[in-house]
Amino acid sequence: MTPFSRPGTAEYAAATASFQLAVPVEPAGAFTARSVDDVVRAVAAARRSGRPLRLTTTGHAMGRTGPLTDSLLLRPVLDTPVRVDPEARTARVPAGKTWGDVLPETTRYGLTALHGSSSSVGVIGYLLGGGLSFYGRRFGLAANSLRSLTVVLADGEVVETSSTQRPDLFWALRGGGGGFGVVVAAEIDLIPMHRIVTGMAVWDPADAARLAPVWQAWARTAPPEITTSFRMLSLPPLPFLPPYLAGKRVLALDGAVIAPAEADRPAARRIADEMLSPLSAIAPPVANTWAEAAPEALAGVHLDPAEPVPFHSDSALLHEIGEADWARVLEAGPNLIALELRQLGGAFATGAANGGALDRFAAPLHYYGVGLAGADTEQDLKAVRTALEPSLTGFTAPNFVDDLDRPQRSYDDEIRARVERVRHATDPTGLFAGDAAPARDPD
Length: 443
What we know:
alpha+beta, Uridine Diphospho-n-acetylenolpyruvylglucosamine Reductase, domain 2, Vanillyl-alcohol Oxidase, Chain A, domain 3, five-stranded antiparallel sheet, about 25% strand, globular, FAD-linked oxidase
């Protein structure tokens, strides 16, 4: 008997719920797995049905691999808890957990993870897609913090993967683009984090083109303890936003400086001041909330939406932007909610000794543009990409791709071929093939 529910049932509705409301989620059947045994049962049922099996957790990137028509959809949301080992500085995270589930468990021990800017994002999907953290210039991509992954394969076997167990599969899972099986648990390294300096400085958008080259010049030699995001924001007039953001178009600079130990706090405050001082000398900010804070505050600084929304977005890894190009780039997306340039470099670029298929970003900048789904947003995204043309590297960060038609290349042809060999060896019948992100190059 199949565990997959049909359209029109409450179970189907729960299993197909998605953060990305602009993408139809209409599989032939859907199932929420609450245990590893549930996952094994669902994989067996999909194999018997002859239908492809697709996976989701929070649905932030639901559109990345295209329509689900004629597929079965599995949502693994396991009932087992997050388990932290404070002595080993590790956490075991079951499938379906978000960073909002994990961080309260780690911070009680003075530890944190290389989490993203949103607490509502699924942990495992974020890790498998590389993972850009505001701690990343010091510690690298979050995928490099993975110690092991537990996977249900297409034949129903439950296997452990690590650098010593099925190392080829462990390598491919970390950034290979999916289509290997169902990851039901991840063991990750944690890092000590006593305090951070974090917040957001806000300027009038008329000052953006003057400030951007100064920020970029600072970013070239910035210490790895700091990671920042330079953004043009046009936020709706929501009641929880401060008056300098609600319903306004602004330039915002947010991020974090780490202070892993008590002794690091003065240096962290100095690093933040050294970033903001030359910018403030050019144009005083309208508001500045950068201050010392507990690590758990970081998940709220970037103002990522907590509730599902219909959105369109685009992203790319970039070379540096020419000084004469900044005004054109920053003015190209007036209808976007956010046009973001994320600072990379540092440990983002150095990779890991035993990294996976994607273990580094050599580019100095990452672009992400997002707006409410509609023609205005699509027009703006095209305009921004055109303005960025001289700086495009041809590569992307997988976590930020949410549309099948967007460029998706994140590694070179040699790595692509190796990933495909592992994918075919692991899933020879292609049960999970629809879940593999296509390596689409820019037009």
